[in-house]
Structure formats: structure tokens, C-alpha cells
Amino acid sequence: APAGAVRAPLSGPAEPPACCVCYGLGRFAACPAARYQLAFLLLLLEELRVPPARCSLFDPAFSAREAAALGALGLRLLPENEEGKHGVGSSATLFYMVHCGKALYNNLLWSNWSPEALSKLVIIGNSFRGIEERLLSRILERDYSYIAKVLKGMEEVALPSHPRYLDTFNDTSVHWFPLDKLQELSPEVWNFVEEPMYQDCEDLEIIRNQDRGAAQS
């Protein structure tokens, strides 16, 4: 049923996703919640008729065995940590990012910061409205300005809750960005395209390329 709930917003005026990117799935060999999230991703791909080969995944935590298992399922592994900075180009793309850090969503929005590109995105992940409610507006606008700016240009529907999977998909919503809504935002919204840096950010829930380099040296 949740797979059908995701299809509903995708059958609106936007074109259905032609491909999928999954970040932050986690250690599914050891973690039952991550296994459920992987199973749901596979059901979604089937429901949306996206071939597994058009679904790319990245999580710095994957073990070699997990990477091999994903390959055996026909899925692709992204070769490097994009930090969420994945431009969609001309392809309508589903981003499957359950329980990812706020910076990852913010980076993704920044990488597609135009009405045309954002209208091709569907994001399944932590509720943006929930982020807005929990964060001081000053912090939201300073650290996650692209989430803050897109709130008026998006639609959001919570995934239906299921008692068995409360911890797996809690606070998870489907987000999409209708072109007409985005075009109603003021021109100044689109003029500021500075790359997010997160200098003052205390709870940065993202593993960055330079962080990994520092950890390995």
C-alpha cells in the first residue's frame, strides 16, 4: 500500500521518474530497519517501472558484501560520495533518502536550484515540514537555506504509518515541486545560488569527502 501511496503524487502533472538515486540506506546486513527500507525501494522500483539498473545507491557504510548483494539485485553503486550534490539533468528522478541528514537534502536542492530542475525531483525522506517545525527559523535559514526557501514551492504527503514499521518510516514524506508553484516564488529566491558550507552547523549529519579523507589519514 505505501508503494501505491507514493505513486499517487507521481501520477500528477509531473512525468514519472525515469531513474532513482538512494542515499543513506545503511548497514542492511545487520540492521532490520535498513532491510525493510531496501525491500520497500525494490517494490517502489517495480511499482514505478524503473529498471534496477537505473537505480544508483551510495552509503559510505556499505561493506564489500553489501555492495556485492546490491550488485546481484541489479542495482548500481555510485563510485564516490556526492554529498547529495546530484544534478538531475533532463531525467525525472526519484531520490530515496529515508532518515538522511538535513545537509544532504539541502545539498540536493542546491544542486538543482531552478524551477525546471526541481520540478523533475521527487524526494522520499524526512518531512521538510517537520524540519521546519523542529528547527529555529534562524538556524533553518542560516544552515539549510535551500530547504527554507523551497517550502512554499513544494507539495508534501506523509507516508501512511504502519504499526510494524513505525521506526523504519517514521517522519517520512513524499515531496515534489510543481512547476507552477515554483514559478510563483519571487525572482530573488532563484538569484542566490551559493554552495552550502555549514561552518557553524553543530549537528552535521553527513559524512563529507574531506571528513573521510581526514579519518583515513
Automatic annotation (TrEMBL):
<feature type="domain" description="SRR1-like">
    <location>
        <begin position="15"/>
        <end position="176"/>
    </location>
</feature>
<dbReference type="GO" id="GO:0005634">
    <property type="term" value="C:nucleus"/>
</dbReference>
<dbReference type="Pfam" id="PF07985">
    <property type="entry name" value="SRR1"/>
</dbReference>
<dbReference type="InterPro" id="IPR040044">
    <property type="entry name" value="SRR1L"/>
</dbReference>
<protein>
    <submittedName>
        <fullName>SRR1L protein</fullName>
    </submittedName>
</protein>
<comment type="similarity">
    <text>Belongs to the SRR1 family.</text>
</comment>
<dbReference type="InterPro" id="IPR012942">
    <property type="entry name" value="SRR1-like"/>
</dbReference>
<dbReference type="GO" id="GO:0005737">
    <property type="term" value="C:cytoplasm"/>
</dbReference>
